Amino acid sequence: MNIPGKTERTGPVLFSGYKRGEAITKALSLSREDILFELKDSKLKGRGGAGFPTSTKWMLVAAAKGDKKYVICNADEGEPGTFKDRVLLMEYPELVFDGMVIAGYTMGASLGIVYLRGEYEYILKSLEDYLEEMRKDNLLGNNILGKGINFDIQIVLGSGAYVCGEETALIESLEGNRGEARNRPPYPVNTGFNGKPTSVNNVETFAAVCKIILNGGKWYCTFGTDKSTGSKLFSVSGDCEKPGVYELHWGAKISEVLDLVGAKHTKAVQVGGASGICIPKSQFNRTLAYEDASTGGSIIIFNESRNMIDVLKNFMEFFVEESCGQCTPCRIGNSKLLEGVELIEKGEFTFNYINKLKDLGRTMQVSAKCGLGQSSPNSFISILENFKDEVLNKSNGGRNGR
Amino acid sequence: MLTAEKNAMVEEIELLVAKYGKDRSALLSILHEIQKRYRYISEYAQQEVARMLDIHPVEVYSFISFFAFLNSEPKGRNLVRICKTISCDMVGKSAIVKTIERELGVEIGGTTKDNKFTVEYANCLGLCDQGPVMAINDRVYVKLTPEKAVKLLSEVK
Ligand SMILES: Cc1cc2nc3c(=O)[nH]c(=O)nc-3n(C[C@H](O)[C@H](O)[C@H](O)COP(=O)(O)O)c2cc1C
Ligand code: SF4
Ligand code: FES
């Protein structure tokens, strides 16, 4: 494969060295309650974007009634500008899979499923081989490390649908149905895969769990901020000298990231991918944290040469294509927002209509059935508000804009 | 399709069902493998899968129609997918697309006359730090230039 091999990565938590099985050994010497306490102490929040406390989710699954329980690793990574899960799976599978075994033990699940996006099929073989090694080392399978714990992992490939990253759509597709998000509640913690209690977690969340079990929740809290503890992997792309995956403390300023990656003449930073928000220069002192600019890790940098309406159009086309079409606010709403962008592009908009579209966006945020339609208006609203001078007042020379 | 081919396909589907199970939850994996092997999932294959999993054929069709990677009509022998999402867009995906369209004499979304290539757009392939990115079947190629893209395509059998 022509993907560059393992680069030496360094980082405070995840990129700091780890030996396969270490955290499993430690975890199996602890009680389930102790593990849940440790996770609670760590204040770890899910790294897939929504930021739900991991200890709470695991506690709910552990407490749920069910003859079978499942652990699902969400490796559907499809958010534009996100590629950190690919790096974790290719270069640090030990952290991800050990985390899954710990999850299985803690919640009493005997099967883990990795939902790998179809686009990553080229890493399937190496992951399968890796799992086979784990089985040989008795870190997977029956009676793990002689502790009477049974847990195995299987990998299922997705088939090219961004919405299947949404946990209930993911579960639907695993069950052999169209990947259409479910109404929630009930949540997967009670009625997940095949109706059984299921914990769906992001790839990076499992990796963080390993480090927390090894070093303790208190230790984990020494990184990051009070509300956003630990470290985060950021996928940085766009206009900069050194794009790539970086591990930083939560709470890093956007300007610090820009310096780190050699970004010059930056005009805007999209935080959180197409479903995130677009931040203008005047706000580069904001921090990357759940309590400020929250993100699943996508950072896309735009320099002064970029036209923000082109950027917005690219995002809206993405959502029009990827909407599952199940609910009206999202199916029609995204098309309307895209039409609005095209009107702006042609200079044929009225301010009145654009304001109506922003209202439509706010309606989508509260009325769409799943996170896709709830967050797709974010970039529309933030770009039109933060870059209104460029987009609406002069650049396109629209009749109304002049 | 010849009867012999049909029988061979049925046998293969039987093997897949044996591997992934008779439960509906095997559908994603089974269809993925059929797609990989035949490059599309024919009506006949859909019926056979439905029969073996004991679901209605239209359920299988509905499932296929949902997913970008599954198709019920044949495409070219090789699938070329060029990422059009923002980070690749900013580093010159348009030049790659124009060149490929010209060299292969096909427009995006189309199939070449000799049926060798179908060329499509893809949404973000998760290699945004190394764009422009293109996938040929299940392999990915990064940091493309128009010239490099053409060379890669000429190496495909
Ligand atoms: C449209 C959409 C796509 C999503 N894609 C992903 C994804 O690729 N990976 C992921 O971990 N979470 C994704 N999520 C979030 C998941 O629904 C879920 O919150 C997450 O997997 C939970 O894991 P965590 O608690 O460890 O973050 C997506 C959500 C939405 C609405
Ligand atoms: S919000 Fe969009 S993706 Fe989600 S269920 Fe509705 S139509 Fe489907
Ligand atoms: S934008 Fe092309 S790979 Fe992500």
Basic shape of chain B? elongated
Specify the CATH architecture of the largest domain in chain B. 3-Layer(aba) Sandwich
Could you estimate the helical fraction of the residues of chain A in percent? 40-55%
The quaternary state of the protein chains shown equals heterodimer
Number of helices of chain B: 7
Structure notes:
The complex is a heterodimer of chains A (402) and B (157). Chain A has 402 residues and is α/β, with parallel strands linked by helices. Chain A has three domains: 8-220, NADH-ubiquinone oxidoreductase 51kDa subunit (Rossmann fold, 3-Layer(aba) Sandwich), CATH 3.40.50; 231-303, Roll (Ubiquitin-like (UB roll)), CATH 3.10.20.600; 308-395, Up-down Bundle (de novo design (two linked rop proteins)). Chain A has 17 helices and nine strands. In chain A, α2 (32-42) runs antiparallel to α3 and α16 (377-386) crosses α17 (388-394). Chain A is globular. Chain B is of the alpha+beta class and 157 residues long. Chain B folds into two domains: 3-66; 78-156, Glutaredoxin, CATH 3.40.30. Chain B contains seven helices and four strands, in the order ααααβααβββα. A four-stranded mixed sheet of chain B has the order 2-1-3-4, covered by helices on one side. In chain B, β3 and β4 (139-141) form a beta hairpin. The two termini of chain B are 24 Å apart. The mean pLDDT of chain B is 95. The chains are: A alpha/beta (402), B alpha+beta (157). Chains A and B meet through β5 and α12 of A and α2, α4, α5 and β4 of B. The complex binds flavin mononucleotide (FMN), iron/sulfur cluster and FE2/S2 (inorganic) cluster (FES). Flavin mononucleotide is lined by residues 46-50, 52, 74, 76-78, 162-163, 165-167, 200-202, 205, 370-372 of chain A. FE2/S2 (inorganic) cluster binds next to α5 of chain B.
